[in-house]
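Protein of interest.
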Amino acid sequence: MGVTVNTQTYPDIPVAEGEEAWTPQELAEVRQQLSDDVAQYEQKYLAAQAGLAQLLTEGSDTTGRDPADVGSSNFERDQEVSLAANARQLYEQSELALKLFDEGRYGICESCGKPIGKARLQAFPRATMCVSCKQRLERRS
């Protein structure tokens, strides 16, 4: 099944109790947002990887270097590693959400199997868990 907008068919996405069904326009917007996010986060990830590679090729030879310069270089490298990891995580989340959308499994909590909720997905399109399950997960961490 699904909803068709301008020859594009979108899957039916479940909504939480009390929420209105997705309109074709809302589905098109969510699909476009996910697609844009994948492209954006892929570019950020590639840029972060390139920055990290450049820092690593500059070498780690600390012979004769001022300790403050070495500390600054280490801090910068750690920042680049963190940025690359964060960009990769956002890219992978966006890519997964887009895949789930295209497969018709978007909007279903990966933990409990209930609808994630339209409001949550509009605010955070990469969500794969409902609010309750996400809160439970974060409390355990």
